[in-house]
Design a protein that fits this description.
single chain, mainly beta, 7-stranded mixed β-sheet, 4-stranded antiparallel β-sheet, 11 strands, 49% strand, globular
Amino acid sequence: QVQLVESGGGLVQAGGSLRLSCAASGRTFSGSAMGWFRQAPGKEREFVATISWSGTYRSYADSVKGRFTISRDNVKNTMYLQMNSLKPEDTGTYYCAAKKSSSASVYAADYDYWGQGTQVTVSS
């Protein structure tokens, strides 16, 4: 079993930045691709970014491309999401997720473990 804990959310003005962290514990982190998803009130959960186990493959939703950067530190068992130039439409609960396999995926159904989420609110 893998436990995922997100942190770093908060309230920020449009144009500002936040850095989310996802700390993994429990079952070995080794070999797991990971991703970030978000859910706005009244909307379905949507893909934000994903990263392979090695970190060599990364993919982003079109809505965040060029503004967000996903990264990971496998020694610290931690994944990050650097969010710059934030917009009000980025508001939502951000979830980190981990797969049992090493290949990244944009599909929530492919992920085996989920964190509880961290709230990000961007004011206009």
